[in-house]
Amino acid sequence: MSNTRLPILVFSLLISSLLTASNCAHAESPAPMPAALSSAPANTWVKVLELKTGERDQPVFVFASKFGKFVAAAGNQADCAIRPRHYDTEEFDLAQSKWINAYPPGMEQGRPESGPVSDEYTKQRSAQGGHGAEPFYKDGKYLRPGVGSQWNIAKTYGEYCYAADGSKGGSIYAYLWNKTLQYDVAARTWSDLNTPPRTQCRIWGSLCYDPLNKEVVHVGGDGGTADTSTWVYSIDKNEWRKLEFGSPKFKELFAKAHDLCWQTKTLVGRCAGRHAIAETAAESKVDLSAEAVKLTSSIEKFASDIKATELAGSEKAAAQVAITRLNLAASALKTAGAGLSSAITPEKIGATRAVRETIEQVVDALAPEPPGRARSQAVLNPVSNKIVVFGGDGLDRVLSDTWVYDCKTRVWEQRFPAKVPSPRAGHILSWLPGAKQVVLAGGYNRLTLPQEVWVYNVDSNEWKAVLNCLVPDNGPKITNRGIQVGAVSDGDILLCPNGTTVWGVKVDAAKPGAASEGAVAVAPGSYVINPIDPATWENAAHSDPAAARKTLNDLPANQWTALKFPKYAPGSNNRWGTTAYDTDRHQFLFWGGGHSASHEDDVDHFSVLGGFWTIGYTPDDPIENVYADQPTPLSFRDRCHVPVHAYRAYAYDQTAGRMFYLDRGYDPLVRDWVTAPTTGLEHLGPMHTHIKPTPAGAVALSTKGFFRFNAKTITWAKLPWNGPPPGDAWCDGVCMIYDSKRNCEWITFDKEILKYDFASGNVEKQTPAKPASLGQWLLPAEAVYLPDADLILAMTMIKLKDGQLHNYAFDPNDGKFYTVDLQYSDDGKPVAFKDSPFSWSDAMDYDPELKLVFLNNSSSYKVWALKFDRKSAKLTELKE
After folding, report:
1. pLDDT class for 630, splitting at 50, 70, 90?
2. CA distances from 660 to 220, 259, 269, 515, 714 (A)
3. DSSP secondary-structure letter at 642?
4. Given 9, 174, 224, 441, which residue has the most CB atoms within 10 angstroms?
5. Distance of CA 848 to CAs 550, 552, 710, 740, 758, Å?
6. DSSP count for the chain of H helices, then E strands
7. If we measure between CA atoms, which residue out of 496, 642, 483 comes closest to residue 155?
């Protein structure tokens, strides 16, 4: 097994488009090619054509072998600016080095054969790329998939393939916006097949045509572990169906591997929590060295169980790989575990985390079908009727596994060649009809990657590098998360459109260039991990619990004090959401982002007793910016992708020991998301749902009602609501506060306050006098109830007629608002603000044990602490 944090130093390259088609047939003789390409040496990139217009991001791109031309369609031609647009579908004639607009019959009149169609066409299609628009339009009577704009609506994400069967020029099948489409290459017409959509794995996957069964095979795509699946589309039946893989015994081992992985995550989480001084009293007494011994025993037993299981064929081979990896994990944990009886250091956490990554490789080895991934291309070997998949983007890592699907038996086999290309995604994967091998080109891996070309022999199970190009000018290049599209024509000509440039290379699998020796090969199953690494924050931390406790104890009353720490959480400062507070471990749990902000799914921990930030795991990067919304709710590791706005839609529940985001739970001990969702919570998403903690269980106000979590049944139950209806729990307006003295929930709006009594379910409506200085909302954003002061403190500051900013509070005894005299101090110096420093991205919570208020001021990368004393706070009734 190779190092899971593989150091790969090379070049960044290749493109911003998508996938490659599986060429199921090819012409009898090579097509003519331009002189620049025909005269170029083999395995050398040549610039075939360069234009000023026509770029596409993640389009369809195939070689229609029965038609003799390349075809490009859909994709995005611009992000925001209005730029000249080519027609939605184009053909590329290699002999002429020319793009041809593929108009449907009769629609070519008055339009250019090649290049931008017209200013009017550009304006129409640019407008179509606006908010909420579908990517389809009508050109005359013909359905067309438009070329999108800033809302990413026309990217294909790799969901297409070419089939030479059927019509005169063959067909392209594509899956876009839950529609199954067919393109008749010769007729130049698109059709919606009106197929019921897949229920899982809707985007990010790859299609490949299976000519043996007249089916389109779909592999990869979005979703958590419960969604990972292979689907096939029957052309005859016009339906999608999910296939099942693996013997019962093999699937049982796969499930046990997942359980073992969770146990390993728990040990890593315990180590990280102890280092951060973020444990419960019970957790702090756990002997971590003894836990490592127990886990080692579980690993060894699992290896023994696998060995004793009777398996056959590829399952037997995969089981042997799993056993080898388990033995490595057990050996590493014996070494690492011995040191866990003393102080936990970042190095010790790193050692246990490396064991966890090895166990994750065990899970991968025992997978009955390709584990979850995005941008993993699929290609058919038409000689053996086998489909090949390599690597892909696991969102928190990039993969390097090789899978082969036998069309005859409809069975997946994971291959374990002696060496494989370095982990990558977004690469070209196509078929060389002359060499009769699979070709791989380019891709990204989160670090840097050279312009490599590899070939794979399905029969001998061997990967071989034929090109390793380090010079930027010598080939197409992509960004660190870009996608390259490409396809192979007759004569083994690999063509790659890169922006407005078309590159070509004559691939000769038998004559690798001298530079190919520099291509990096690794052991199968290796990863390249997302560079946002928990170790970065652990190494920056300087644990001094005595000093942190003294800082909190010495806080002066009624002064917000900025706490010092070495490094703030990753991501932007406009996270569009709250921060949960874990009262059991005295730590903030910071998640969220979305919109135009951070879109990684990390959960960041700030320990007030440790005095520093750490992050729970290497985050998943969901590929697309969350400009409007996430295209899928879960990562491949069952972690919640941040929505467009998290706002108040998550909170820590002390009864469950979890942070809940809607129906999903995060375990702060394990520092990861729980796989299974909870049930019973009815909602319309985070923009219409508020979740807040109470001693008896978290409560959620949604447009569907008022709910409370029951830790005994692990379900949400609807609470009685006797009184005025709550209205829409809209994210920008509602503020909820639990009042421990009255056992009630205060729910504030712009003009009214609802008091919900938990004992009776009765709701009382109050309309307090609203001072004009409050603005639109009575209590905007967030507020906390202070039990010793019997007061609700608002987070946001208000400006009065004197031009000064003031804190303010709501007194539940008389229903009035009061200014509160609070000071601010940063680095020992008083701070005066011109405008309120707190925004919708900030959060405030009360720690009942420490009797302190904490404020995660993420918009300024600060954390504040407050010791509140009502007697000296100089409350003044707010009237203006």
Report:
1. low
2. 28, 21, 18, 52, 12
3. P
4. 441
5. 18, 14, 22, 10, 20
6. 9, 57
7. 483
Convert 65-79 to b/e letters by CB count within 10 Å (16 or more is b). Answer: bbbbbbbbbbbbbbe
**42 close to 516: Cβ distance less than 8 angstroms:** no
Please list the helix, strand and coil fractions of the chain in percent, rounded to the nearest 5, in that order: 15, 30, 50
The single-letter code of the amino acid at 756 is Y
pLDDT at 28: 39
Name the token pair of 355.
């064991």
Helix (H) or strand (E) holding 23: none
Whole-angstrom distance, CA of residue 553 vs CA of residue 16: 54
**Which pairing describes strands 876-877 and 705-710: parallel, antiparallel, or unpaired?**
unpaired
Query: 8 falls in which pLDDT band (50, 70, 90)?
Result: very low
Question: SS3 for 266?
Answer: helix
Q: What is the DSSP string of 669-710?
A: TTTEE-SSPPB----S-GGGEEEE--TT--EEEETTEEEEEE
Q: Is the predicted pLDDT of residue 484 greater than 90, yes or no?
A: no
Q: Are 155 and 631 in contact (CB under 8 A)?
A: no
Number of Cβ within 10 Å of residue 714's Cβ equals 15
The tens digit of pLDDT for each residue in 525-558 reads: 999 999 999 999 999 998 889 999 999 999 999 9
Mean pLDDT, residues 172-176: 96
The pair of three-digit structure tokens given for residue 243, joined into one six-digit string: 């296939």
What is the Cα–Cα distance from 19 to 158, expressed in whole angstroms? 5
CB neighbour list of residue 328: distance below 8 Å, 6 or more residues apart: 1, 358
Burial class of residue 609 in the structure, from the number of CB atoms within 10 Å of its CB (0-12 exposed, 13-18 middle, 19+ buried): middle
Q: Rounded distance, CA 408 to CA 269, Å?
A: 45
Phi then psi for residue 356, to 5 deg, are: -60, -40
**Strand ranges (DSSP E) for 711-750?**
715-718, 735-739, 744-748
Annotate 127-179 with three-state secondary structure. HHCCCCCCCEEEECCEEEECCECCCCCCCCCCCEEEECCCCCCCEEEEEECCE
Q: From the CB of residue 448, how many other CB atoms can be counted at a distance below 10 Å?
A: 13
User: Please, are residues 69 and 81 in contact by the beta-carbon 8 Å criterion?
Assistant: no
d(CA 693, CA 584): 12
Pair of tokens at residue 431: 């078929």
E strand or H helix at 613: strand 612-615
Residue 80's pLDDT is: 62
Angle in degrees, 0-180, between the axes of helices 288-308 and 313-337, rounded to the nearest 10: 160
Q: Are 436 and 392 in contact (CB under 8 A)?
A: no
- Give the H/E segment covering residue 538: helix 534-540
Q: Report the distance separating Cα 147 and Cα 682, nearest Å.
A: 37
- Find the length of the chain: 880
Residue written as token pair 């009809």: 433
Answer yes or no: is pLDDT of 688 > 90: yes
**Residues in Cβ contact with 168 at an 8 Å cutoff, skipping those fewer than 6 apart:** 66, 67, 185, 186, 187
Please give the sequence-ordered ranges of beta strands (E in DSSP) within 442-553, or none if there are none: 451-457, 462-469, 487-489, 493-498, 501-506, 521-522, 528-529
Residue with tokens 């960044």: 12
302 or 573, which is more confident: 302
Contact between 597 and 647 (Cβ < 8 Å): no
